[in-house]
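Troubleshooting log. The previous run stalled partway through. Resubmitting the same two chains, unchanged.
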Amino acid sequence: MPSAVHALELSHVVKRYGEITAVNGLDLVVPEGSCVGLLGPNGAGKSTTMRMLTAQTIADQGQITVLGHELPADSKAARARMGVVPQLDNLDTTLTVEQNLVVFSHLYRVPKAKRKAAVERVLTIARLGQRRDSKVDELSGGMRRRLLIGRALIHQPQLVLLDEPTVGLDPQVRQELWALIDLLRSEGVSILMSTHYIEEAERLCDSVTIVSHGSAVAVGAPTDLVAEHAGREAVEIYGSPERLAEVEAEMAKEGFPTRRTGTSVAVLGLDDASGRAPAGERRSTNLEDVFVLLTGEEIA
Amino acid sequence: MSTLPVKEREPGRLEPTAIGGVLVREIINFSSYWRSTTFSSTVEPTIYLLAFGFGFGSLVAIVGGYDYIDFVATGTVATAVLFSSIFPAMFGTFIKYKFQHTYDAILAAPVDTEELVTGEALWLAMRASVYGCAPLLVGLIFGLEPSWGMLAVPAINFAAGFGWACTGVAIAGWLKGIENFNYVTSAVITPLFLVAGTFFPLTGLPGWVQALAQLNPLFHCVQLVRHAAFGWEGWADVWNFAFLIIFGLLMWRVAIAAMERKLID
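Second attempt completed without errors. Output:
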């Protein structure tokens, strides 16, 4: 039976490559109309998960349902109503912007009478109307990325998968793309976005699933996760490496979680600390604290 | 709570819409590079034809009962079909897979590997069908007699081109690195190309080579084109054509299996 409330649902999904278990009992849900971030360090199984959603990778165990279709058997029906923005740019570089969109209007079965309008719509969304006749080769990195996202919207999908949509881009270009993704959100499109940029997840996602070693270690709205795992405030303590190691040991004794940030140690979970909180520079906690705490890894 | 509308009709296998989408992609891409491809696909066999036709033609006037230039003109058709289908299939598939990641994009759309391979092979077969006629046209200029049977040549080319395109896709699917293509070219394609009765009749070769040549699709293609130009030979040509069809269907499935193995994990 098609699930009515979830655009996408994975339960207990496992994928092994020989000895390596890339995805290890992953549970993941994207409620209809919401934007979910799949957050995890490199090698956590994000890309494998993304490939499984288009049935280019077949799970060894578990269930995957996309837009009410069971995968991999009904993957094609799901793919027809889903847009995919890959991490690696795979535009046809010798074709123009418009030609790229025309090709995908065919691949995504936009009816003949609606193709022209579909191409125009995407050119507007991606703000590439002025560059419609430019070859992809001639576009800037940001424009290419906008085209890549726009291409995935040619058939007005109900669900969009974004695999590291802003990786390797300048900050201002990244913000431009965030605006574009936010526009989709406001139109009620369901979104699953894998990323390792914490700020991106914090800004765009209604909920995030933090993955580590192939399974979900935390699920929730970014602010809830921060409150739950890191508390309201963190104390940053600076010092020599020896001093920092001492602080870590002391705090471990007191039962406060800590994270290293290179030049300092951040002490977290101080909401109930009252007088026991160490002296240092106070700051607000953020999703990055949670991420590092739960995955045990620094952000690249 | 709104329910997501689910299409009543589930998509099946080998859908014309999906294959059509792959074809459209190839055709639009072709518009950006047709000049160079057309140049090499027509000029190369023409050079072979002229070199052998006039070079050898000055030593041997008649081969297998035909003027040597006519013999070579008809033979080179099959070569042109081979070169314009198997090489673009091998290199194109590999480049799209490895460097351009095109297949990731296509397979994320409602297109299955089977449809992807079919669409690309059909496109190369169409191209080869047209390019394969170039040597015949050059031959006509140099005195080859026109005949009605020649109108069947594009169809013969299409059948052979489809088989060779699928062979090329299968090779690209099976091999790990592009440098391994050299082995295939030297050990498989070159012998196939030489032992097909293109430039010289097989009758001068040892019996076992002649027997092996019967398994060479290129030989059957050469035979068919020659008979199309000079006169059909009944059941022999039915068999030649049937061989090309069987070859095409077999390699089609092999290519799909190879690409499924490569693209889906």
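Takeaways: Residues 171-186 of chain A form the longest helix (16 residues). Chain A touches chain B at residues 2, 4-5, 7, 17, 32, 51, 54-58, 67-69, 74, 76-77, 79-81, 84, 86, 88-90, 92-95, 99, 102-104, 106-109, 158 (CB under 8 Å).
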